[in-house]
Design a protein that fits this description.
Radius of gyration: 22 Å
Bound molecules: iron/sulfur cluster
Number of helices: 10
CATH topology of the largest domain: Rossmann fold
Helix content: 25-40%
Number of strands: 13
C-alpha cells in the first residue's frame, strides 16, 4: 500500500497523458490491485482550491502519510529565484516541493522537465527552470546533489518526453510492494531495467545501420542515423523492446529517435538546423557517434562500409533485405 501525491510544475501534462494510457496495469488496476492510493493528482484529484492546500498542509504536519511524491514538469525558480512564476495553492510551487520532498518516503521525477529541466531549461531559460536533482547532465538541480528521501534513496528519475507508461507504473508498483531497493539505477538515477539497452536494440533498421544504408524520414528501408538525426545508438531506453501502445516506436515508423531519455535532451539546445537533421563534422561525418565507440574508430569503419556498399550497388550486387523492405 502506498499513498501517492502527484504534482505538476513547468509541464505540458504529456507525462500525465502517458500515465493515463497505461495498460498493464491500467491506472485503475494500480488502485484496485496494486495498493496505490492516489492522494491527489492535478487531472484526476477531486479536491479543489482550499481543499488542496489543506491536504498539502496535512501531509506536511504528518497528519497524512505520503509514501511517494511524483513530480512532473520543471521546477520553475523565476523570477530571480522567487518561484512566483509558478504559483500553486497559494505558494510558489518550488516551496511546496522543497518541503514535501523532506517528508516523502520516495521522490520520483517523471519526464525530462522534472528529471533535468528539459525544454524549459534551454537557454536563455527565462523561467529559471531546473530538474529535481539534475540540471541537464550535472547533478544538483533543485534539491541538491546530496538529497536523499526518508526511504533512503535519491530522486528516482524516469525521463522521457513523455515517459513510457510502463516505466512509471512499474516503479510505482515496485515502491508499493516494498521492492524498490532491488531496482538498480544508473549514474543519472534511471532504473537500469529500462535504461541500459539502446533504442537501437530491436530497431528493424539495425542492419541498414551496420551496412551504412541511408533511409529518410517516413521512408521504409534504410537507417535514419546519417541524415535525419536519429539518436537511437546513443540513447538508452526500451522503446524498441516494449514498444509504445504495444504497437510501434518512432524508429519502427521511420521517425528518428530524438534522444529524449538522455540528460542532454533537447540536444544541441534546439539550435537551428539541429532538429531532424544529423549534425555533421567537416560537412559529411556525423558529429555524434554511437555511445562507447571512439570517433576515429567509427569514422574508419563507417567509411569502409560506405565505400563497400557503393561499390556493390554500382556492380549491381543488391542487398536482398533492403530490396524486400522497400
Ligand atoms: S534508425 Fe536509428 S535506431 Fe534504427 S538502426 Fe538507424 S540509428 Fe539505429
Ligand atoms: S524513440 Fe527516442 S525519442 Fe522516442 S520515446 Fe524512445 S527515447 Fe524518446
Amino acid at each position: 500500500m502506498a499513498n501517492v501525491l502527484w504534482l505538476q510544475g513547468g509541464a505540458c501534462s504529456g507525462n500525465t497523458m502517458s500515465f493515463l494510457n497505461a495498460e498493464e496495469p491500467t491506472v485503475v488496476e494500480l488502485v484496485t490491485d496494486f495498493g496505490i492510493n492516489i492522494l491527489w493528482h492535478p487531472s484526476i484529484g477531486l479536491e479543489l482550491g482550499d481543499q488542496v492546500s489543506t491536504l498539502l498542509n496535512d501531509i506536511l504536519k504528518g497528519k497524512i502519510q505520503m509514501d511517494i511524491l511524483v513530480y512532473e514538469g520543471s521546477i520553475v525558480q523565476g523570477p530571480k529565484g522567487s518561484g512566483t512564476m509558478n504559483y500553486f495553492a497559494e505558494r510558489p510551487m518550488q516551496d511546496w516541493v522543497r518541503e514535501l520532498s523532506q517528508v516523502a518516503g520516495f521522490v520520483v521525477a517523471i519526464g525530462d522537465c522534472a528529471t533535468w529541466g528539459g525544454i524549459p531549461a534551454v537557454p536563455p531559460n527565462p523561467s529559471e527552470s531546473t530538474g529535481m536533482q539534475f540540471h541537464k547532465n550535472k547533478k544538483g538541480g533543485f534539491l541538491g546533489a546530496g538529497f536523499v528521501s526518508k526511504g533512503g534513496l535519491p530522486v528516482i528519475n524516469i525521463p522521457g518526453c513523455p515517459a513510457h507508461p510502463d516505466w512509471v507504473t512499474q516503479i510505482l508498483v515496485a515502491i508499493s510492494t516494498g521492492r524498490i531497493k532491488d531496482v538498480l539505477v544508473d549514474e543519472y538515477h534511471r532504473p537500469k531495467t529500462f535504461f541500459t539497452d539502446f533504442v537501437q536494440t530491436g530497431c528493424p533498421n539495425a542492419i541498414s545501420f551496420a551496412q551504412k544504408v541511408d533511409g529518410g524520414f517516413g521512408k521504409r528501408g534504410g537507417c535514419l542515423f546519417y541524415e535525419v538525426g536519429c539518436r537511437g545508438p546513443m540513447t538508452r531506453a526500451s522503446c524498441n523492446r516494449i514498444l509504445w501502445n504495444r504497437q510501434a516506436s518512432k524508429t519502427r515508423a521511420n521517425h528518428p529517435c530524438l534522444g529524449c531519455t538522455e540528460p542532454g535532451f533537447p540536444h544541441h539546445d534546439l539550435v537551428k538546423g539541429s532538429v531532424f537533421k544529423t549534425m555533421k563534422y567537416l560537412g559529411f561525418l556525423p558529429q555524434n557517434v554511437p555511445t562507447g565507440v571512439s570517433r576515429m574508430g567509427y569514422y574508419t569503419r563507417a567509411g569502409v562500409e560506405k565505400v563497400m556498399g557503393t561499390v556493390e550497388r554500382v556492380l549491381g550486387v543488391e542487398q536482398e533485405h533492403f530490396e524486400t523492405s522497400k
